[in-house]
Amino acid sequence: MINPIAGFSKLSKIEKIQWIANAYFSDTESAIVQIKRYWNSDEKLQQLHDEFIENTITNFYIPLGVAPNFLINGKYKTIPMAIEESSVVAAAAKSAKFWATRGGFKATVLNTEKIGQVHFLYKGDFSKLEAFLSEIKSKLFAETENITANMQKRGGGILNIELRNKSDLLANYFQLHVTFETKDSMGANFINSCLEQIAKTFKTAAATFSIFSEEEKQLEIVMSILSNYVPNCIVRVEVSCKIEDLAEKHIENPKEFAEKFVQAVNIAEVEPFRAVTHNKGIMNGIDAVVLATGNDFRAVEAGIHAHASKSGRYSSLSHAKIENGNFCFWMEIPLALGTVGGLTSLHPMVKLSLEMLEKPSASELMEIVAVAGLAQNFAALRSLTTTGIQEGHMKMHLNNILNQFQVTNDERAQIKKHFKDTTVVHSSVVSFIENLRK
User: Fold this and answer.
1) Distance CA 239, CA 259 (A)
2) What is the pTM of this model?
3) Residue 366 to residue 111: CA distance in whole angstroms
4) pLDDT over 60 (residue 393)
5) Which residues are part of the catalytic machinery?
6) Pick from 327, 119, 131, 320: nearest CA to 227
């Protein structure tokens, strides 16, 4: 049984590793060697990574791949993708190639509004609270100007402050619902700083508001925090072509393919069990680009899944139809992204990824990320409605199995030749390796 440790955060990096190795590993020295093996030989670069988070002991590598040939709004892009799941990058690249000869992807940012809220408790007359906000609203803006000045120079800032009555859901619960424009910054720190100042000014002014009773003056600020649900920060992405133009190697009957594809999307629109997996495939593409560009994929995931539930039923993010002989496939999703601030100016691979994307604005990055998600979804649905998804996926997974068994180059060549036209199943690969080694 491991005893708790006091003052762990105050230990040096080496002391932390030594404690972990002694506490959890029978072979202490091997554990330390493995941890140090993933350190960067460049000490300054390693220190940079160490300081991204707390209690760092080493680096955890995820591959950075690229999917070329994305034609987006008439311009070709090569999209960086950081992900560990096999076949994702290959599928994205395949979709990019497919649609590049059929007009490419069309992407449009519909809005870029972000949201933060001051949550507070108030016991009293709601009409008085409305009068209070009306009187001090200009002061709330004025007392955040030291925070918003630079953002305003870039065309951003606080757009509006709205009072919302939520007491029907929770006793005495109200909000200041604040909308922001943060331009090329994701804006989390900016929004939270503004909200905390708004809350401070709001509470201080309430204590002297003449028509409030003594109880009403004692309104309680619960918390001030941005929301990762951004229903007014929306990007639309779509592809379309004539049905007959869908023809290719695995689509001999384009009309039948289009109808089956639309039916598959319709199923995801009405069946939550399918919708979750359907949307997970979309997030394979989105998360990989979000991570590669130094953005917060957890925030993006939370906001997008909330959007998928906006009707009250969890549903497909993407949609498809056949209209006037054309196949149309599209998606509208919320994305709060940034291309300045945070890791974008610190992480060397993030800077490289953004340069590869030709230093996009936040709005342009929204378009690129959404395109990656729709491309991934198209690739998955095309496989599901034609050859099946496992054929391609397991061939990509074969490398993982071979690496697990540390096969030689000669063994690898024989195994790949055997499974070129044979279904890849883990047990079959293992049996083949065992027979080779006999």
Assistant:
1) 16
2) 0.89
3) 11
4) no
5) 85, 280, 296, 393
6) 119
Q: Which helix (H) or strand (E) is 205 found in, with range?
A: helix 188-206
CA 205 → CA 139, 208, 210, 218, distances in Å?
9, 6, 10, 11
- Distance spanning both ends of the chain, measured CA to CA: 43
Question: Residue 305, class by beta-carbon neighbours within 10 Å (0-12 exposed, 13-18 middle, 19+ buried)?
Answer: middle
Q: Out of 16-25, 50-59, 67-76, 417-426, which region has the weakest mean confidence (pLDDT)?
A: 417-426
3-class secondary structure, 162: strand
Q: For residues 55-69, b (16+ Cβ closer than 10 Å) or e, as one string? A: eebbeeeeebbebeb
For residue 92 the two structure tokens come to 């994205």
Q: Which residue has the higher pLDDT, 335 or 428?
A: 335
Residue 351 and residue 292: Cα distance in Å, rounded?
A: 9
- Cβ(323)–Cβ(329) under 8 Å? no
- Are residues 199 and 178 in contact, defined by beta-carbon separation less than 8 angstroms? no
Distance CA 118, CA 199 (A): 6
Relative orientation angle of helices 254-270 and 362-384, to the nearest 10 degrees: 110
Instruction: Please tell me the distance from the alpha carbon of residue 292 to that of residue 89, in angstroms, as a whole number.
Output: 13
**Distance from the Cα of residue 331 to its chain's centroid:** 15
Ranges of H-type helices in 3-71 = 13-24, 28-37, 43-50
Residue 72 pLDDT class (50, 70, 90 cuts): very high
The answer, yes or no, to whether residue 148 has pLDDT greater than 90, is yes
- Decide: 119 and 224 in contact? Cβ < 8 Å: yes
Q: How many residues does the chain have?
A: 438
Distance between CA atoms of residues 423 and 117, nearest Å: 53
